[in-house]
Design a protein that fits this description.
Layout: E1 19-20, E2 31-32, E3 38-41, H1 45-57, E4 63-66, H2 69-79, E5 83-86, E6 89-90, E7 93-94, H3 95-105, E8 110-114, H4 119-127, E9 132-135, H5 140-155, E10 166-169, E11 172-175, E12 180-183, E13 186-189, H6 192-203, E14 208-210, H7 211-219, H8 227-241, E15 251-254, E16 258-261
Parallel strand pairs: 3-4, 3-5, 5-8, 8-9
Antiparallel strand pairs: 1-2, 6-7, 10-11, 11-12, 12-13, 14-16, 15-16
Length: 267
């Protein structure tokens, strides 16, 4: 199955900027749109991997993938996803029936991703209550935008009290909405990975965040082997937020443990 090339996608990762209460998060913690859990059900391994890669590159942290109805049922109960991306043609059943079955367990938004482009198939999927029906091949940007639109539409009513839109580190201010850093040195942009890592540290400001936790925030559950890449991203992040990156005031290394974002009174 050929998907559209991922170059020139024309979307800005991390632009959604919506904080919601996840269906399974509980405890009243405000969550980012990109923290919602996604489950992709696709029988072709190459396509399945590409879809997950697109979503991760767009900033979605928690993505799970299944290649059959049986795997999807198990992961649905285990992972409690907030949204399902579902192929219609599966080796042990069809996506239409699987959607009906999953929704008897939990009613979460569902998008069909299918090569079946006949009007009757699209109408059947939408008529069964699907939130969208995307025909393959599709542009990666289209997938990201349509998944984001469904998530915003579904979870908008569950908006919790928003976390601060800005983070202050001395005379440096991080604006989460625009992904920008303002300091006496000027205005700089945050990449999607830098934003995810800094947000993870900010949510636990003053406390140690382990390397594994940071890798999970930046690369999802398949984070093994990214430790060196993490160090590169944190070094670049320090260059943007620290007055003197070689003697950091804010992003501190806790040797053998992880990293910590210092509080004002900790200086």
């Amino acid at each position: 199955m050929r998907l559209a090339q991922r170059r020139g996608m024309g979307y800005n990762k991390g632009d959604e900027g919506l904080s919601v209460q996840s269906a399974e998060s509980g405890k009243g913690r405000c969550m980012e749109l990109h923290e919602l859990k996604l489950l992709t059900v696709e029988d072709e391994p190459q396509v399945r991997g590409m879809i997950c890669d697109i979503l991760r590159e767009a900033g979605f942290r928690a993505t799970a993938a299944a290649g059959s109805c049986a795997e999807a049922r198990a992961l649905f109960r285990q992972e409690c996803p907030d949204c399902v991306l579902l192929d219609v043609m599966l080796p042990d059943g069809d996506g239409f029936e699987l959607m009906r079955e999953l929704r008897t367990v939990r009613d979460v938004p569902t998008l069909f991703l299918s090569a079946r482009d006949a009007d009757e198939d699209r109408l059947l999927g939408l008529g069964l209550g699907a939130d969208d029906y995307i025909v393959k091949p599709f542009l990666p940007a289209e997938l990201v935008l349509r998944v984001g639109a469904v998530l915003k539409r579904t979870y908008h009513a569950q908006l919790a009290k928003q976390e601060p839109d800005r983070l202050r580190l001395g005379d440096t201010e991080i604006d989460w909405e625009s992904n920008t850093i303002r300091s006496p040195r000027g205005v700089q942009s945050l990449t999607a990975k830098e934003r995810a890592l800094l947000r993870c540290l900010a949510e636990r400001r003053g406390k140690i965040v382990t390397v594994d936790e940071l890798c999970r925030a930046g690369w999802g559950e398949d984070f093994f082997g990214y430790e060196n890449t993490l160090m590169v991203h944190l070094r670049r992040l320090r260059a943007k937020i620290e007055p003197d990156p070689s003697h950091p005031r804010w992003l501190l290394t806790q040797r053998g443990l992880g990293y910590r974002l210092a509080e004002d009174d900790a200086l």
